[in-house]
Amino acid sequence: MCADRVYNVLFLCTGNSARSILAEALLERLGRGRFRAYSAGSLPKGEVNPYALQRLAVEHYDVSRFRSKDWSEFTRPGSPEFDFVITLCDKAAMEPCPVWPGQPMTAHWGLPDPAAVEGREAEKHAAFAETMRMLAARIGIFVNLPLTTLDRLSLRRRLDAIGGSGEREGSAA
After folding, report:
1. For 140-156, b where at least 16 C-beta lie within 10 A, e where not — what string?
2. DSSP string spanning 129-157?
3. Residue of 73, 112, 121, 132 with fewest CB within 10 Å of its CB?
4. Is 160 helix (H, G, I), strand (E, B) or coil?
């Protein structure tokens, strides 16, 4: 992988309303121009979860650009060619994905769905904050991988390790 290029990353979740949206926002910020982030879902909800938008607003993100979209949007001619496709929910990881042009590297970084948390407002907000924290840790490791020096197999192992252990891999990167 070339040192000067920008890497396109697609985050997938079934509903594309919470985890994948948060990941898209985080990678855009933490990737410092080296990564272009996208998100989509196999069965998109059609709207971004309001708790996800509130969490992003608290973190000073411009929430106006985020929307829930179907992954078929990225299979059309003229769509970005992805270097990485990362699933964030177990259901999306089990679904047959479209064939992505360019044979992107794939990984699964399963996380609990904060939108599934029931209870008081404080519990729901806490679930989104925790998901954001876990994603920030994983994406922080990812953006610091030496992409230009890793062979494909080593990169695959690193991506899998990020999804399997979250921030514990930070010292190995």
Report:
1. bbbbebebeeeeeeebe
2. HHHHHHHHHHHHHHHTS-TTT--HHHHHH
3. 121
4. helix
Contacts 24+ apart (CB under 8 A), 115-124: 115/15, 115/17, 115/18, 115/49, 115/51, 115/52, 124/51
Q: Which amino acid is it at 21?
A: I
Per-residue tokens: 37: 């982030």
Does 101 score more than 90 pLDDT? no
Nearest to 141 by CA among 108, 168, 101: 168
CA atoms within 13 A on the CB side of 7: 26
Residue among 63, 97, 105, 173 flagged as catalytic: 97
Where residue 2 falls among pLDDT bands split at 50, 70, 90? low
Give me the residue spans of the domains in the chain: 7-165
Active-site entry in 13, 27, 88, 134: 13
Catalytic residue among 9, 26, 52, 89: 89
2 is known as an active-site residue? no
Spell out a b/e string for 2-16, using b for 16 or more CB atoms within 10 Å of the CB, else e: eeeeebbbbbbbbbb
